[in-house]
Amino acid sequence: MTHWIDACATDDIDEEDLIRFDHGGASYAIYHSPDGQFYATAGHCTHEQVHLADGLVMGHLIECPKHNGQFDYRTGEAKRTPVCIALKTYPVKVEGDRVLIGLGA
Predict the structure, then answer these.
(1) Could you tell me which residue ranges the Rieske domain spans (predicted)?
(2) For residue 45, what are the β-bridge partners?
(3) Which entry of 3, 38, 68, 71 is 20 to 30 Å from 82 by CA?
(4) Which domain holds residue 89?
């Protein structure tokens, strides 16, 4: 069962940007894509555990601030070395002006 957690307001994140969201001892990254959709991934790069909130969003890619590895934040797919392990992704829904992230029960 998915447990929906209120993460932020839709206007907290500019298009082609992201914010950090911490909840229950874990850290996530919430993205606002250039086509107006919202996405969520684990917050740390799978390469050296640097938080992605300091990274650069380009289109549908997040670039890690440490070694410039890239992920497609829609799918978590590793797109550029040195990253080779995908990011965990989470379901997102928008209710009114709120972005909710779906976490396991």
Answers:
(1) 5-101
(2) none
(3) 38
(4) 2-104
